[in-house]
Design goal:
elongated, binds flavin-adenine dinucleotide, 506 residues, Rossmann fold, Elongation Factor Tu (Ef-tu), domain 3, Four Helix Bundle (Hemerythrin (Met), subunit A), 3 domains
Length: 506
């Protein structure tokens, strides 16, 4: 366990003493927590309950929107099947060949519908981001990948079998005949091949073998896969016959999916980047391998960044223009300046750390729900480690906190991991929050997020955060470490809505 933290003061920042308390409010190593104001002295019971009611209302609103979103996904697949059945009727099921054919068509429709839903989920639509957060939307996008592929594979296989039964030839002969006689089907098979490539390269174990940029490039082929399969739906499929509601439905779905992608992934970021004219004004090393990059621009207040959010950045220098990275705002932007803090965890972030002053920067975002707005409880507890401090620093700065409302535990293995600590300490002092530190390596062979000495002293989440059960717990740090904090929070009885985890892997 660390002793009192007294980081070097910077002009304009106050350093709060930071320590970690032991069990039952005692302090480990004789260190007392400072910068703490009692919650009872900080706010009235009436204002606390008004805040709690408004947070509960916000949470219900977001939950309803998330439910509507899931319902729309399911309804959309159900609609594609229902519309097919409405037009084809039950006659198609009167023979074995007809049944195989009809099931094959429905599998294709459901699979295509799922793929279009996946494209919408990845289109970075602001409503989706505000409702469930981009990370949950992408998690759902990923979860749908394999079912969509299996449905499309079943579609190809079942229809080839059904055609082979009609033509009374074997499946291989039927496949060759389909490929040689129809350009639309040839394109559809090409689309299927691309889809297999996209899904296989997205399986975690395979994905890790590729550089992110290579994987991302392959992933973009999914747009091509959907588009090259379209002609066979219009011609061979018959399900999109002119003048039917089914045709209107599918065209609307295609236009919505691709329209949202064009608007939110391409047009809006280009317009936004041109409007704000961001340029790098300074790159300052704040710890070994960690830099803070300040950018200047115009009308940055119109980005309406919430502390805790991130954006996807592209630096237009010779060494960095081809890769964009999600990086959190490490301070709340002003009208003409933005700051991010980057740790060189890989080749791309190392190149960003050396970006020349004057480099022009594109911005996509802001995104994310790791903000004060997502809170559901009267108190705020935060655990952060390493570069995970960046969104925490900005979130604490943005939140209007009353004395005693927030407690922050800063975790590091050694002194090199203390970047931005003095700024967080300064914010704690000015808001009357508590800030504690826990330094030291984790004990070998134990699944814990705590230091060896903290573990030995009996420190738990409850001892660090006396109001834990009335708190939202915000966690950001290395993934495996953060998962262990989440595990402890669940064990302590926190509800899922109280746990907010920002993932830095994607
Ligand atoms: C929401 C969010 C906020 C983040 N905030 C910060 C921050 O404030 N400071 C900071 O230093 N880091 C932050 N990161 C992490 C940062 O984006 C990665 O460290 C960086 O992209 C790694 O790229 P690399 O080429 O250096 O490493 P690589 O070795 O290529 O990749 C390391 C990991 O980063 C992922 N990654 C790489 N490139 C991208 C990309 N373009 N888009 C998405 N994921 C990618 C890879 O999947 C891999 O898991 C954040 C990540 C996310 C998702």
């Amino acid at each position: 366990m660390s002793s009192t933290l007294t980081p070097p003061r910077r002009p304009g920042t106050a350093a709060a003493p930071v320590s970690a308390p032991g069990p039952h409010g005692s302090t480990a190593g004789g260190v007392s927590a400072a910068g703490v104001a009692s919650a009872a002295t900080g706010r009235s019971a009436a204002s606390l309950s008004a805040d709690t009611r408004s947070r509960a209302k916000n949470h219900r609103r977001r939950q309803t929107a998330a439910d509507v979103m899931q319902l729309l996904c399911v309804t959309s697949v159900a609609a594609s099947i229902a519309l097919y059945l409405a037009y084809a009727g039950v006659a198609d099921f009167s023979s074995l060949q007809g049944t195989i054919n009809a099931v094959g068509i429905m599998a294709g429709l459901a699979g295509t519908d799922l793929i279009l839903v996946m494209l919408v989920l990845a289109a970075r639509v602001p409503w989706i981001d505000r409702t469930v957060g981009q990370d949950r939307a992408i998690a759902l996008h990923r979860a749908l990948g394999k079912p969509a592929l299996y449905l499309i594979l079943a579609h190809g296989l079942l229809l080839t079998i059904s055609y082979a039964m009609l033509d009374q030839i074997d499946v291989v002969g039927e496949t060759l005949s389909l490929l040689s006689n129809s350009t639309e089907l040839l394109l559809a098979y090409l689309g299927l091949g691309l889809l297999v490539l996209v899904v296989v390269t997205s399986i975690v174990a395979v994905r890790r073998r590729f550089a992110y940029e290579a994987w991302h490039l392959i992933h973009l082929l999914s747009y091509a896969a959907v588009l090259v399969a379209l002609p066979h739906q219009l011609s061979t499929g018959g399900v999109l016959a002119e003048g039917t509601l089914q045709r209107v439905y599918w065209i609307a779905l295609y236009v919505a999916a691709f329209g949202l992608i064009v608007v939110y992934r391409f047009a809006l970021p280009i317009i936004r980047s041109a409007r704000h004219g961001l340029r790098v004004t300074s790159v300052e090393t704040i710890a070994p391998g960690v830099v803070s990059i300040v950018m200047s621009g115009t009308k940055l207040e119109t980005l309406r960044v919430q502390g805790g959010q991130y954006a996807v950045w592209r630096f237009w220098s010779a060494n960095t223009w081809w890769h964009a990275h999600p990086i959190s705002f490490s301070a709340v932007p002003t009208a003409n300046a933005i700051r991010i803090t980057v740790r060189d965890l890989g080749a791309g972030s190392a190149r960003i750390s050396r970006v020349p002053v004057g480099t022009s920067v594109s911005i996509e975002g802001p995104y994310g729900v790791f903000t004060d707005r997502a809170r559901t409880s009267p108190y705020l507890s935060v655990v952060t480690a390493g570069i995970g401090i960046t969104p925490v620093r900005a979130m604490l700065e943005h939140a209007s906190l009353r004395a005693g409302e927030a407690s922050v535990l800063l975790r590091a293995s050694d002194e090199n991991g203390q970047y931005l600590w003095q700024e967080v300490a300064g914010i704690s002092v000015s808001t009357g929050s508590s800030a504690f530190s826990m330094m030291g390596h984790r004990p070998a062979g134990t699944d814990t997020w705590m230091s060896e000495s903290a573990l030995r002293s009996g420190v738990t989440l409850e001892t660090v955060f006396p109001h834990l059960h009335d708190s939202d717990l915000y966690i950001c740090g290395p993934q495996a470490w953060a998962d262990l904090v989440v595990q402890d929070a669940r064990r302590a009885g926190l509800a899922e809505k109280q746990i907010h985890l920002e993932r830095f892997d994607s």
